[in-house]
Structures are given as C-alpha cells and as structure tokens.
Amino acid sequence: MVTIKAPIYHAPLACMSSSMQVDHPLSSLRQKSSILTKEIMSFICQKDCYLKEFHTKVVSCSPSKLKIAVNGKKEVVSGFDVICEDTVLFPEGGGQPDDRGTMNGHEVLRITRVSDKAVHFMKEALEPGTEVHQIVDWSRRFDHMQQHSGQHLVTAIADEKYGWPTTSWDLGREKSFIELDTPKISNEQLEQLEKDVNEAIRKCLPMMPRWVEVGSEELQKVRTRGLPEDHVGLVRIVEIESIEANMCCGTHVSNLSHLQMIKLISAEKGKKNKTNLYYVAGDRVLKYLAASIEVEKKLNKLLKCGQDEYAQAVEKQQKTLKATNKSNLLLLREIAVLEGQRYLNQPNRDVIFCLHRKEGDSEFLNMVANEIGSQNALMLLSVGDEKTSGLFLIAGPEEVVAVVGPKVEEALKGKGSFKNGRYQGKASQLCNRPTAENILREHADKRKVET
Ligand SMILES: [Zn+2]
C-alpha cells in the first residue's frame, strides 16, 4: 500500500526557494513580481545529494563580516561573500544546518541562503568569473543527511501508526530531537516505535527527491500545511517509497539502508503538552555506542563490577558516604569542644588564641569560638589549605573584633563581614596568618583583655 503523506512542512521559505523555475499557469504572476522569481531556486546539492565536488564559476564577491565562534569565543571575522553560478555546498534549510567545505582550497566558513542565492562566506576573495572547484566536507554533510532523513522516517511512522504529528525538530551536534504533539510516550511505545523504524530501514526503501507542479494531482496527495501565498515554480518533494512524501529542501540519503540504524534515546516532556523524542541515526549510533563503551570500561574499573551491578554498587557507596559524613561531622564537633577546653584549661594562657585546621567548616570555627567565649580571648580561627585559601573567623571582645577584622581580612587577602560580634569570611592567603596574629597582638596590648 502506498501512502503519500507529508506530516511536516518545515522551513516553508527555504523549501519554496528550493523549487525549480518552470513555465506553468502561474508564470504570468511570476513576471509581475521580482520577489517571486527570486524565491525559485534549486542548487546542484539538492538535485544530487551525493555529489561531493563540483566545478562552477564565481558570479560576485563583496567584502563582508561574519560573527563566528573561534576557540569557543565569538569573534567578528572579516572576509567576503562569494556567490557562484551553482553550489554543491548546502545552505541551511528545512531544519538542516549549512555545509562546510572549500572553494579552490580556501575554507568556506558559512553558507547562507539569501533569496535564491547561496552566499559563501570566506576569508579570501575570489574574483567574479573565476573557475572554482567546490569540495564538500562530506563527513559533516553525510551525518546531516542521516539525521535529517532519520527525522523524516520517525516523523512518518510516529504520525501514521501512533497519531503523533511532528510540530518541529532540531538537528543537534550530538543528538537530535523531534517534537511530537503528544503529552506522553511510554517506554513500551518508544520500544515499539524504534522497532518499526528499524524494520523500515531493513526494507532498503528508496528515498528520492522529485519536483511537482503547484496544483498538480500528485501534490494534492501530499499533506502539507499549505504553500506560502507567493509561491511559484515546482515544489520539491522527498519521498520514502511506500511510506511518505514530504515537502523539503534538505539533502537526504538515497535509500533507507544508508541510515544503517536509528536509536531512540529518550522521550522527554516538551513544551505545552508535547514530547521531545531524542534520537541518533547512522554513524552517530556507532559513536554513541563507542562513547557508552568507554564510560562502561571506566565504571567497571572504578566500581569493580560489571554494568549489571552498577546501580547496586553506587547505592552501597552512597550509603557508606552518608554514614561517613555523619560520623565526620560528629567528630569535628567533638574536636571543636576539646580545642576550646584545652585552651581554657591552660594555667597561664595567652590572651591571643590562634587555631588552624585543614579540615573543618564555618560551623567548626563558630563552635570553637562558642566554647571559649568572647570575653576570654581574642581568637583567630581558620580552616583550609595552610598556604592558600580557606575560611577565617575572628572572635573576642566585640569592639576589638570590629577594629581588627578588616585589617586581618586585608592581611589574609580575604573577603568577610562583621556580624553578631564576629568577623568571618573567606581568605585567599592563609600563609599570612603570622601577620594576622601580630595585628591581633598589637590591639590586645593596647587594651586589656580579660583572662
Ligand atoms: Zn525535511
């Protein structure tokens, strides 16, 4: 049974501009509008999606600028907009990102569609009339073809069998998703949909683009969201034999067998009662599997077990960690009390009390201070790395703390604040504790602290 169906008509303008210019009943209308004629175009990359190289001629070249990410940072690059008679490099459209490649050995950094023209942005100028040899970055392009054709197949089966129309899709760098108009997809449904999709791939069905006229009987069979009002020319349809036909300007595989396999990864809650179906197709399935195997190897080593026992092993470790943290906390509190008492029990104790511990937190510092009492000493307490960063607390007679606090903060290259009679904060140079202690001592000498 042949079901001609087009559940999605994404990127209408891009699809329209992919149509070919022909004489048909609307040609008189076309002549009346220059805008309309500009919308009609089809590039060689859309006619032969497997063409990797092409010879053509430069039509125009003008200085331009482009904002691109260079080593993760957005930069404005100066270059040229080069337009050729035709192009084997696909400009973005139909949800598919643009190609990368070279022209006469120079890198093409971006290809955009402006009206019926494909604009190649390059750092180098190519004079009009120059013969150019275009080469497509085939691994990027073929990956896009597999993900895009995979989307058409999943969209068709999800709509036909389950009644979930596709409302949008996104071709991601690692995985892509299809937004389906359904609030939920169960695990069983996801599993069955994946089986159905892969069964279609095993049938090695041809997938070819063709062009049909507006108003033709054939086009009537293709379900679309309608053509834009200003559309003229032929309409490009991509058909998966016996499954669906879809208006689209993108580049596609010529046979479903070229998809190799589709893995549905997850169905996640999307916007407004919709579900985002994440998937990978073709070579990405192998990459995904290779990455998962790498993770598995690392976890086998770390958890000392096979993947069947991961959950159990992690659960056990989490329980142990929780118990250890609880025990550490209790011990730290006990140490805080003991440190305080040890100081108070010294027969001729110094009015200055300095204590540093590598382990501890703000609570530990406050517990030591509480144990000693603000009238019994002027305290500089700290935790963290002895030489670099950590936490500090100054406690003692409130009026002294208020004065020495900012000075100690400066000495320790820290940031803190005075609150409830104590000055506490973060320090970045705990190695300066001797200087901080001297500051405390100077002020303690000026003022009699009760001991
Ligand atoms: Zn498409």
TrEMBL record:
Keywords: Cytoplasm, Metal-binding, Protein biosynthesis, Zinc
SUPFAM superfamilies assigned to the protein according to its UniProt record, in alphabetical order: ThrRS/AlaRS common domain (SSF55186), Translation proteins (SSF50447)
Cofactor(s) it depends on: Zn(2+)
GO BP, one annotated term: tRNA aminoacylation
One GO location term (cellular component): cytoplasm
Residue spans crossing the bilayer: none
Zinc recorded as keyword: yes
Entry's Gene Ontology molecular function annotations: aminoacyl-tRNA ligase activity; ATP binding; metal ion binding; Ser-tRNA(Ala) deacylase activity
Record InterPro entries: Alanyl-tRNA_Editing_Enzymes (IPR051335), Thr/Ala-tRNA-synth_IIc_edit (IPR018163), Transl_B-barrel_sf (IPR009000), tRNA_SAD (IPR012947)
Subcellular localization, as worded in the UniProt entry: Cytoplasm
Chief site of localization: cytoplasm
Entry-linked Pfam families: tRNA_SAD
Domain Threonyl/alanyl tRNA synthetase SAD: 235-278
Record-stated family: Belongs to the class-II aminoacyl-tRNA synthetase family. Alax-L subfamily.
Task of the protein: Functions in trans to edit the amino acid moiety from incorrectly charged tRNA(Ala).
Protein name, as recorded: Alanyl-tRNA editing protein Aarsd1
Naturally occurring in which organism (per UniProt): Holothuria leucospilota (Black long sea cucumber)
